[in-house]
């Protein structure tokens, strides 16, 4: 398109000019005539000398030179040819304002313009003089200065350049209003900014230019969401009010001021909605009041719009203050606006009805009066009906509001048609909104909420999946500094929680907690929605607690629910829900801690929820149900029959107010069954039991397929069937119970702990039956479920805590397998269900060489995920490091780590499935089969597994050369093993030593620790000859060791003793089997296990993998034997260990005598970093220092050095593959934890897991004076008997030799026995 012809230098004007006259440009001297019929003459003043006069010749008809006609609209376009400044302007064309027209340049180009106008009649007189701006006619959409230098020069040299810019802005603004094309807004803002740059400060119309700029900035903010636009718009509107002259009674000036107030008020509303602060809303109310006052005085047709702005501003005030008076004022203003609106003004009526729906809706939420909600929805429907669907700006907003109103009513009444209509309206809002529009996230959110609620009726998982997807989009499209970001995070969290309730996927609940914490963090303080967010966070934390049983989540849930109650106003319609959820969380904690005060407070909260809930509230059945369950719990925990009777009365109210086919019908029946079952417990009335079973069956009939409560429901039915069996002794009832236990255990979804409980009861129910194969199948499911209770998605600390409650399962299952005559299954099950955490860590660090050769990409990803999972396992949880007043941002950060951890675990499982689908990798990282285990048993001896369980005790001996040898330990019982362990603990403590978790205080005697309460100088009562220890060792020989020796036909030997690797369970894991010996009448007749075998210990048979095959490699002398010794006699904050220096000096001399390379780190040189660096390059370690065992997080166990603690986690990260032997000359390095007998949570097992082939540790504290001799004798034997280099496989022999030497030197008191007994060898 060609640019306009350049102006002539002599006058600086272009060849064709346009005159655009609107009310915004009217600044004139008005005639004083009192003619009430309006003006009869319109004179357009073109500068000082030129003017065009138009005469009124008829109604709405004006005549000028050339007899052209113009309508009486006050906006006109007059095209003049004034190319010759010496001639009067030549009129080219007149057009009607608001119409499209075509105008011809000198060239053939045609240009279309459209102008909006409004009718105005003020100050009647015979003539109205209008000063007109003269501007170059530019092509539509042209932007200065991009149209060329000639045009730029023309504008820069034009004294009316500000008018040129203003005209360009008007044109672009009009196009933007029509098309919502951001480019048009950019053009308009650029033009208006240019206009203000060149407009004289005393220019009469400067305020309209500020206002016009503000309007376009505000509109662009509404479309693009850029907060800077809103701030600049506010500045422009404020500037407009500041430059508006004191017009007195001038109607034109008042109208301009009214317009400015209107737009300023709108910008202030937008500001407080964006920032969540209330002050702008208060100012907006005052501004709109001024606009209403002016409009009312002038009887201006915009009065309804002014009322609408005032009403909406009052509503915003309520949103941010929760003062109901603001709602009442909003309704009053909006009703006034509707009254003064002409019935044929559909656009204004639609806007006002849409706006009044909001305060009506909130009045319902504040008062619970359904009338308000119905009025709100009718208003929204009216607004939708009056709005053309083609209005891309307004139609989506009105459909969105209707969606919200219908969703709220559905939640109150449960009327299904409401939620269907809400989904339809939400889809309309999304469909009609252009991509990139700032309102789109809001419609995504509303539609998602409606879909989530519809799922309660349809039970269609697709609804909740779509809802979560929409919520994610809404959050992504909302800027972090927008107050709505908080609320949209909340909605996403609630939807994730809903899906978790359906599927049980831990990733959903972790992410839900994270998003709700983020919502609280970004929500403005005191905001009306903050209680809702706290309530939802409490629900998510409660759900997390029910999944894993971690008490910290229950505590946090209660705290969050309390906040929701505290922050709510008494009139909040959600307050009953808040009270009910608080009660539920208290009940939940009561079930864990059994503190009656929790249950009492829960019942109070439930009663309060029922008390303040409206009689027709859709949530009332939930409140009643919770109260009934709490009363039943009180009945079950010390209450009486009256509690359960009241609970049943309360439950009957649920039946009365719930429609047939209502939501969660299965839950209603399920709760009823629980209550009847509890009454049966009191009455033993079979009718109650039958009624309970009937209710359970109804629940089963109505529960949605794949629901997470499916396993729990079957478990409840099974327990009821067992009660019926106990009552009637009918075999069919027992078999029914077994069937339901099985269904609960095999459910693909549901709480893993529930499924595990069901599996154990299933297996336990079969122990009294003759069907051993069915029992074996049940225990197999138990074993398969066990890892789910301590999965990789949990921290190592949590994984070690979980087995405390289920640690006896492995022994119970193995005992059943022995009973069934299947020792191979017993071995496999013990391997699969013991030392879970160490096994998981080993799997994460497994060699991937074969997989890399097969698929390098898959191996690389699996390696990355495994490494990340190992690191994630040592993280701190969000509540491990914070108390209730902890920093929320830190909590959020830690919760995000938890989300990432769960996602990593899920990906790990997915990758495992992929790998196992590859040819040759079907058994990748699966628990070894019995045959695979046998292949790793060393040829030099036997592995002996001992299982100690309440029903029976057994041993099984494994070797490569024979079938497993099952040895029933008929003389041993679990109680006897427990008695021996307790006796040993007492002896150890009484001797001033520490054993396995006893609370002790430090003693000056180096590595020895004294029991709490003991006094210095008190002699041991067991120091006499013939104390407790010999009796313990005698029992271990008679009941444990001798049956194995006899079964293996072993004979005493001084030179050719067999190796035995003991794998012990239960209390035996804490007893010194290696020292088992008879107590004969004469020393010559003494029988001792050490006469037959050399003993070592292993946590599992699999721990010998890749170690036993290397037994002979050390004897070749090809290995580079590199020793590192650490001596730390005076670790900061701990008692001195004088013997440490002598010990390391003695070992160093022994190594030097045989020219073995070694490095010694002592005191200040023994720092954490230096020690780690040296471990990398040394394969033999000797630690002589204080050690620490952390049973809750074994990877945190370690050694105290000069500048801190060297942890197992630090050593693990080195990934050593050449580690040979670690000698841990420190306290209780193999003590373990009595609560976790099957997990081997001690340093020795940890060093094995870190890659060492052998470890020397101690079962309790050692005497500082004995340690140097033990270490010297050990290394002398090891070096002397190794054919070449160092033979690590002789470490057990060396330790046996050193212990025998020490035993010969000391006496036979208990304290003397305890000097050499604690030294044990682990590994090869």
UniProtKB/TrEMBL annotation:
It comes from the Eukaryota. SUPFAM superfamilies: HCP-like, TPR-like. Transmembrane segments: none annotated. It holds the Pfam family CHAT. Residues 1033-1302 form the CHAT domain. Residues 1013-1023 have a biased composition (Low complexity). Residues 1004-1023 are annotated as: Disordered. Gene3D superfamilies: Tetratricopeptide repeat domain. PANTHER family: RAPSYN-RELATED, TETRATRICOPEPTIDE REPEAT PROTEIN 28. This is CHAT domain-containing protein. It comes from Candolleomyces aberdarensis. The lineage of its organism: Eukaryota, Fungi, Dikarya, Basidiomycota, Agaricomycotina.
């Amino acid at each position: 398109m060609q640019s306009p012809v350049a102006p002539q230098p002599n006058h600086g004007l272009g060849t064709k000019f346009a005159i655009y006259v609107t009310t915004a440009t009217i600044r004139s001297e008005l005639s004083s005539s009192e003619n009430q019929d309006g003006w009869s003459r319109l004179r357009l003043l073109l500068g000082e000398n030129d003017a065009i006069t138009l005469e009124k010749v008829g109604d709405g008809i004006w005549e000028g030179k050339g007899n052209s006609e113009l309508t009486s609209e006050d906006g006109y376009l007059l095209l003049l040819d004034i190319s010759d400044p010496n001639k009067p302007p030549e009129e080219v064309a007149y057009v009607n304002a608001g119409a499209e027209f075509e105008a011809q340049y000198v060239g053939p180009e045609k240009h279309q313009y459209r102008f909006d106008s409004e009718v105005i009649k003020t100050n009647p007189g015979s003539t109205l003089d209008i000063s007109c701006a003269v501007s170059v006619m530019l092509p539509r959409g042209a932007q200065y200065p991009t149209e060329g230098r000639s045009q730029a020069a023309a504008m820069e040299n034009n004294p009316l350049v500000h008018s040129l810019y203003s005209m360009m802005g008007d044109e672009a603004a009009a196009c933007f209003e029509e098309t919502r094309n951001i480019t048009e807004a950019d053009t308009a803002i650029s033009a208006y900014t240019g206009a203000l740059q060149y407009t004289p400060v005393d220019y009469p119309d400067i305020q309209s230019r500020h206002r016009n700029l503000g309007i376009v900035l505000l509109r662009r903010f509404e479309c693009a969401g850029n907060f800077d636009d809103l701030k600049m718009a506010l500045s422009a509107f404020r500037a407009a009010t500041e430059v508006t002259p004191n017009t007195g009674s001038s109607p034109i000036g008042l109208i301009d001021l009214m317009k400015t107030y209107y737009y300023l008020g709108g910008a202030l509303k937008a500001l407080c909605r964006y920032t969540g602060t209330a002050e702008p809303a208060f100012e907006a109310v005052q501004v709109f009041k001024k606009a209403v006052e002016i409009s009312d005085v002038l009887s201006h047709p915009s009065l309804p719009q002014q009322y609408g702005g005032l009403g909406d501003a009052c509503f915003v005030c309520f949103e941010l203050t929760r003062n109901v008076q603001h709602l009442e004022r909003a309704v009053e203003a909006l009703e006034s606006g509707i009254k003064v609106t002409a019935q044929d003004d559909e656009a204004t009526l639609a806007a006002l009805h849409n706006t009044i729906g909001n305060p009506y809706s909130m009045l319902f939420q504040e008062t619970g009066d359904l009338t308000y909600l119905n009025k709100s929805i009718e208003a929204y429907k009216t607004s939708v009906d009056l709005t053309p669907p083609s209005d891309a700006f307004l139609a989506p907003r009105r459909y969105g509001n209707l969606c919200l109103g219908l969703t709220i009513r559905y939640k109150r009444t449960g009327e299904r048609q409401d939620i269907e209509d809400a989904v339809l309206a939400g889809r309309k809002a999304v469909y009609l909104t252009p991509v990139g529009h700032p309102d789109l996230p809001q419609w995504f959110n509303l539609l998602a909420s409606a879909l989530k609620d519809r799922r309660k009726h349809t039970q269609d998982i697709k609804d909740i999946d779509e809802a979560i997807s929409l919520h994610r989009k809404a959050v992504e499209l909302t800027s972090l500094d927008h107050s709505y970001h908080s609320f949209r995070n909340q909605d996403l969290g609630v939807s994730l929680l809903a899906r978790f309730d359906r599927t049980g996927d831990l990733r959903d609940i972790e992410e839900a907690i994270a998003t709700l914490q983020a919502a609280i963090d970004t929500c403005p303080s005191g905001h009306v929605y903050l209680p809702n967010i706290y309530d939802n966070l409490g629900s998510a934390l409660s759900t997390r607690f029910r999944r894993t049983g971690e008490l910290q989540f229950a505590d946090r849930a209660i705290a969050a629910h309390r906040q929701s109650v505290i922050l709510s106003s008494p009139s909040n319609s959600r307050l009953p829900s808040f009270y009910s959820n608080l009660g539920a969380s208290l009940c939940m904690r009561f079930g864990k801690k059994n503190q009656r005060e929790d249950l009492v407070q829960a019942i109070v909260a439930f009663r309060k929820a029922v008390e303040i809930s409206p009689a027709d509230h859709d949530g009332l059945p939930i409140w009643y149900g919770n109260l009934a369950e709490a009363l039943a719990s009180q009945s079950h925990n010390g209450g009486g029959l009256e509690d359960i009777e009241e609970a049943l009365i309360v439950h009957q109210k649920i039946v009365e107010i719930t429609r047939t086919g209502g939501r969660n019908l299965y839950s209603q029946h399920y709760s009823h069954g629980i209550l009847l079952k509890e009454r049966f417990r009191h009455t033993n009335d079979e009718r109650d039991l039958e009624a309970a079973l009937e209710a359970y069956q109804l629940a089963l009939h109505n529960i949605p397929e794949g629901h997470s409560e499916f396993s729990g429901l079957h478990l409840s039915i099974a327990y009821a069937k067992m009660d019926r069996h106990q009552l009637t002794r009918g075999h069919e009832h027992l078999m029914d119970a077994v069937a339901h236990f099985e269904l609960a255990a095999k459910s693909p979804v549901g709480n893993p702990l529930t499924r595990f409980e069901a599996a154990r009861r299933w297996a336990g129910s079969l122990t009294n039956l003759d069907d051993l194969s069915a029992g074996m199948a049940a225990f197999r499911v138990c074993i398969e479920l066990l890892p789910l209770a301590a999965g990789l998605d949990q921290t190592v600390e949590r994984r070690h805590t979980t087995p405390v409650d289920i640690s006896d399962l492995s022994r119970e299952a193995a005992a059943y397998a022995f009973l069934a005559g299947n020792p191979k299954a017993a071995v496999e099950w013990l391997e699969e269900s013991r030392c879970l955490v160490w096994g998981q860590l080993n799997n994460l660090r497994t060699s991937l060489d074969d997989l890399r050769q097969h698929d390098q990409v898959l191996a690389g990803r699996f390696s990355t995920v495994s490494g990340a999972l190992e690191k994630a396992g040592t993280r701190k949880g969000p509540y491990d490091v914070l108390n209730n007043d902890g920093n929320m941002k830190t909590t959020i950060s830690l919760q995000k780590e938890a989300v990432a951890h769960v996602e990593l675990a899920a990906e790990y499982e997915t990758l495992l499935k992929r790998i196992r689908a590859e040819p040759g990798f079907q058994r990748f990282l699966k628990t070894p089969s019995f045959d695979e285990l046998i292949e790793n048993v060393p040829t030099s001896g036997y592995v002996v597994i001992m299982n100690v369980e309440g029903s029976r005790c057994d041993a099984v001996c494994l070797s490569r050369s024979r079938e497993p040898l099952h040895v029933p330990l008929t003389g041993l019982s679990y109680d006897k093993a427990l008695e021996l362990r307790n006796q040993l603990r007492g002896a150890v403590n009484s001797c001033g030593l520490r054993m396995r978790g006893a609370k002790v205080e430090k003693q000056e005697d180096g590595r020895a620790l004294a029991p709490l309460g003991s006094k210095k100088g008190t002699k041991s009562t067991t120091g006499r000859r013939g104390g407790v220890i010999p009796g313990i060792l005698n029992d271990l020989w008679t009941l444990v060791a001798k049956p194995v020796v006899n079964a293996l036909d072993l004979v005493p030997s001084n030179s050719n003793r067999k190796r035995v690797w003991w794998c012990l369970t239960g209390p035996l894991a804490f007893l010194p089997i290696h020292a088992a010996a008879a107590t004969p009448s004469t020393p010559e007749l003494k029988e001792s296990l050490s006469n037959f075998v050399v003993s070592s210990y292993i946590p599992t048979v699999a721990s010998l993998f890749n170690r036993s095959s290397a037994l002979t490699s050390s004897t070749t002398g090809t290995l580079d034997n590199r020793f590192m010794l650490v001596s730390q006699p005076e670790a900061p904050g701990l008692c001195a260990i004088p013997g440490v220096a002598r010990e390391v000096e003695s070992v160093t001399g022994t190594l030097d005598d045989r020219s073995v390379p070694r490095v010694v780190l002592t005191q200040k040189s023994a720092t954490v970093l230096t020690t780690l660096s040296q471990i990398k390059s040394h394969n033999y370690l000797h630690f002589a220092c204080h050690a620490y065992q952390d049973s809750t997080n074994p990877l945190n166990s370690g050694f105290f050095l000069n500048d801190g603690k060297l942890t197992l986690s630090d050593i693990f990260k080195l990934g050593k593959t050449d580690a040979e032997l670690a000698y841990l000359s420190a306290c209780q390095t193999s003590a373990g934890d009595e609560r976790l007998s099957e997990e081997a949570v001690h340093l020795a097992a940890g060093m094995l897991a870190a890659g060492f082939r052998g470890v020397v540790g101690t079962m309790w504290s050692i005497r500082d004076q004995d340690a140097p001799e033990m270490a010297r004798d050990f290394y002398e034997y090891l070096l002397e008997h190794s054919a070449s280099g160092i033979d690590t496989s002789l470490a057990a022999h060396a330790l046996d030799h050193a212990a025998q030497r020490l035993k010969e030197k000391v006496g036979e008191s208990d304290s003397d026995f305890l000097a050499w007994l604690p030294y044990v060898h682990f590994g090869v």
